[in-house]
Amino acid sequence: MKKLHLVSVLGLAAILSASTVYADGFEVKAGAASIKDTNPSNKVGFDAALAYTLRLDRFFAIMPEVSFNWLNYTGSSASIGGSGISGGSTPSTSIYTLPVLANARIYIPMGGDDTPIFQPYITAGLGYGWMSYNQSSTPTSSAATATASGFMYQAVVGGLLNLGMISDGSASSTNLLLEVGYRGGLLSTSNSQQLDVSGILVRAGVNLSF
Questions:
Q1: pLDDT tens across 163-192, in order?
Q2: Checking phi first, is residue 117 left (phi over 0); if not, alpha (psi -120 to 50) or beta?
Q3: Which of 58, 61, 186, 209 has its CB 3.0 to 4.6 Å from that of 25, i.e. a possible disulfide?
Q4: Where are the domains of the chain?
Q5: CA angle, 65 as apex, 133 and 109 as ends, to 5°?
Q6: What is the largest CA-CA distance in the chain?
Q7: What is the pTM of this model?
Q8: Please, what's the b/e burial string for 116-144 (b: 16 or more CB within 10 A of its CB; e: otherwise)?
Q9: Which residues contact 135 (CB under 8 A, 6 or more apart)?
C-alpha cells in the first residue's frame, strides 16, 4: 500500500508536468518545524526545502519538493511512537526526516494584475518520507540508529512578495515568500512500529521565476 501511494503521487506529477507550462522556477526556503510530543510543548527543529515550480496558468501550479528536517535535543525524552516523543533517559537525541512531496498550489486572485505586489497561495501535497532516529543512552555511549519510512502529506498557506513591483512597479522574477502549514505522517520501522512525525512548519525564502 505504501508503494502504491508513492507510485500514484509520482505518476500524477509526471502527467501534470507534461502539460503546457505558463511559467516555471525554483523555491528555496528554510525555517522551523515541530514533531509531535506527548508533553504539552512539541519538539522544534530546523526545516528547509527545495521546490521546482511548474506554473500551468496564472492560478495553478504543481511543485515537486524535497524537504529536510533536523531535530536535536537533550533531556529525558528518548523515543518516539504513535503518540509522539516520550519516555526514557536519553541525554542526546537526533531525528532526521526527508519528505519528498508532489504539491498542488492555488494562487488566490488579486484583482486584474498579472503580477500583484503580494500573491497569496494555498499549497497541498502528498508524498513519501524517510526518517533516521539516532539516540545515545549515555553521553559517552555509542549511538543507536533506527530508520523508518511511510506516507506523508502537508497543507500550507503563504504568500509571495514581488520585489520589482515594490521597487519600481514593474514585475520581477524574484519574490520573497513566507508560509506556515501542517505536515503529517506515520512512518513505519522495520518491526512495524508506527512513528508520528506530524507538526507545524514555518518557512521563509525566495521564489525565482524563469
A1: 988 888 788 889 999 999 999 999 998 888
A2: alpha
A3: 209
A4: 2-79+86-209
A5: 135
A6: 63
A7: 0.79
A8: beebebebebbbbbebebebbeeeeeeee
A9: 78, 79, 90, 92, 93, 94, 143, 144
CA–CA separation, 47 vs 31, rounded Å? 5
Residue-wise DSSP of 84-120 = EEE-S--SEEEEEEEEEEEEEEEEPP-TT-SS-SEEE
What residues of the chain score a pLDDT lower than 50? 15-19, 40, 76-78, 87-90, 138-141
Query: What's the CA gap between 172 and 206, in Å, rounded?
Result: 12
Cell of 126: 502528498
Pick the closest to residue 64 from 53, 80, 75, 72 (CA basis): 53
Cell of 168: 519600481
Cell of 90: 536519553
- Name the one residue in this structure whose C-alpha cell is 526526516: 97
At residue 77's C-alpha, the angle toward residues 82 and 197, to 5°, is 35
Nearest by Cα to 117 from 159, 68, 74: 159
Task: Compute the distance between CA of residue 197 and CA of residue 148 in angstroms, rounded to an integer.
Answer: 11
Report the DSSP beta bridge partners of residue 67. Answer: 49
State residue 193 phi and psi, 5-degree precision: -75, 140
When the candidates are 3.40.710.10, 1.20.1270.20, 3.20.20.80, 2.40.160.20, the CATH number that belongs to 2-79+86-209 is 2.40.160.20
